[in-house]
């Protein structure tokens, strides 16, 4: 059985983003996407998941869009500020 959790980190500077881990969770794998807005970051995370998992990603049945924050990075903002969204997941390959 496949399971996942979507984490909305909000807007973070890439130099200071602490990242995310599966330590102390029930999940074994993780991807993080970035973008200028939440949906773009989510789509980037999903894209990374498909690149890593290839045949198993469809098993997760991820939604096309999710209700995330409405923050977005303004064009005037200092470079390297991005919206971050992570997907923690576990795919039982049995």
Structural commentary:
- The protein has a 3-stranded antiparallel β-sheet.
- The chain has 94 residues and is of the alpha+beta class.
- Helix content is 17%, strand content 30%.
- The protein has 1 helix and 3 strands.
- The termini are close together.
Present the secondary structure layout.
Blueprint: E1 3-13, E2 29-35, H1 38-53, E3 81-90
Antiparallel strand pairs: 1-3, 2-3
Strand content: 25-35%
In the sheet with the most strands, the strands line up as 1-3-2
Q: pLDDT average, as an integer? A: 83
Shape: globular
The helix/strand series, from N terminus to C terminus, equals EEHE
User: How many E-type strands?
Assistant: 3
Q: Sheet bearing the most strands, described?
A: 3 strands, antiparallel
Q: Would you identify the regions where 5 or more consecutive residues have pLDDT less than 50? A: none
Helix proportion range? 10-25%
How many helices in DSSP terms?
A: 1
Return the domain count: 1
What's the N-to-C terminus distance? 9 Å
């Amino acid at each position: 059985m496949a399971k996942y959790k979507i984490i909305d980190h909000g807007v973070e500077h890439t130099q200071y983003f602490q990242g995310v881990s599966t330590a102390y969770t029930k999940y074994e794998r993780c991807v993080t996407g970035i973008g200028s807005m939440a949906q773009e970051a989510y789509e980037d995370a999903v894209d990374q998941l498909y690149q890593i998992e290839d045949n198993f990603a469809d098993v997760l049945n991820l939604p096309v869009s999710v209700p995330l924050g409405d923050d977005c990075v303004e064009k005037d903002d200092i470079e390297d500020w991005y919206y971050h969204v992570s997907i923690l997941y576990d795919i039982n390959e049995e």
